[in-house]
């Protein structure tokens, strides 16, 4: 990889956050019933990572900042329509569909963690919500399970989006999230339209 021809997009904190979040979420998801200690610690790690990402969204590098990529739902839907038509614009940072997915994942993960704290407090009398009491434990368990499964669905959609984006724009977005570099924008690579008039 010749980094002189590439642009540093994803800084080290974003990349570490991303891959630690992947590991922590799947550890939490797979240890749900049988390994409570590992499940709880993975949940705490997810929570800590979310707090970090919210802070980094304001003080991180250009491409990490929310102000760089957060857009309206209408812009995200319009971009998704362009993807379906195979004429989506290439973005150096997050595209509008990726921005929507980031918001959905951050919110869903945060709600999953908070409901997990409620379950832990109701069942074990421990954690940040230790005083919640056991009266609604089953309800909290159902909410937590639903949110965890919804987050998993979002992860699957995210992976599909990454695969489609990588195909359409002929670049590996997974590799970019490993080494941090993407090819620079130019007229040919910035607007790829497979159905030009």
Provide structural commentary:
This protein has 197 residues and is mainly alpha-helical. It has a single domain, classed as Transmembrane di-heme cytochromes, Chain C (Fumarate Reductase Cytochrome B subunit, Up-down Bundle), CATH 1.20.950.20. Helices cover 67% and strands 2% of the residues. It has eight helices and two strands, in the order βαααααααβα. It has a two-stranded antiparallel sheet. Helix 5 runs antiparallel to helix 6. The longest helix has 33 residues. The chain is elongated, with a radius of gyration of 19 Å. The chain starts with 6 loop residues before the first strand and ends in a 7-residue tail after the last helix. 20% of the residues are buried. The C terminus is likely disordered.
Determine the structural class based on helices, strands and strand pairing: mainly alpha
Strand content: under 5%
Would you identify the CATH H-level superfamily?
Transmembrane di-heme cytochromes, Chain C
Low-confidence stretches: 187-197
Number of domains: 1
Proper CATH architecture: Up-down Bundle
The name CATH uses for the topology is Fumarate Reductase Cytochrome B subunit
Put simply, the count of helices is 8
List its salient traits:
single chain, 197 residues, mainly alpha, Fumarate Reductase Cytochrome B subunit, 8 helices, 67% helix, elongated, disordered C terminus
What topology does this entry show?
Layout: E1 7-8, H1 12-30, H2 36-59, H3 66-69, H4 73-84, H5 96-124, H6 137-169, H7 173-179, E2 181-182, H8 187-190
Helix pairs in contact: 1-2, 2-5, 4-5, 5-6
């Amino acid at each position: 990889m010749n980094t002189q021809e590439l642009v540093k997009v994803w800084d080290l904190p974003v990349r570490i956050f991303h891959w630690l979040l992947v590991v922590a979420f799947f550890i939490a998801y797979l240890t749900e019933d049988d390994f409570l200690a590992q499940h709880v610690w993975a949940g705490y790690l997810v929570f800590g990572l979310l707090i970090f990402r919210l802070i980094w969204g304001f003080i991180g590098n250009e491409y990490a900042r929310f102000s760089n990529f957060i857009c309206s739902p209408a812009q995200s839907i319009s971009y998704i329509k362009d993807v379906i038509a195979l004429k989506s614009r290439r973005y150096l940072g997050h595209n509008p569909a990726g921005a929507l997915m980031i918001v959905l994942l951050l919110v869903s993960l945060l709600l999953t963690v908070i409901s997990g704290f409620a379950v832990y407090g109701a069942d074990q009398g421990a954690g940040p919500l230790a005083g919640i009491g056991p009266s609604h434990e089953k309800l909290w368990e159902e909410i937590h399970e639903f949110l965890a499964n919804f987050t998993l669905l979002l992860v699957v959609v995210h992976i599909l989006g990454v695969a489609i984006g990588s195909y359409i724009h002929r670049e590996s977005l997974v590799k970019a999230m490993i080494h941090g570099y993407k090819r620079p924008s130019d007229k040919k690579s910035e607007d790829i339209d497979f159905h030009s008039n």
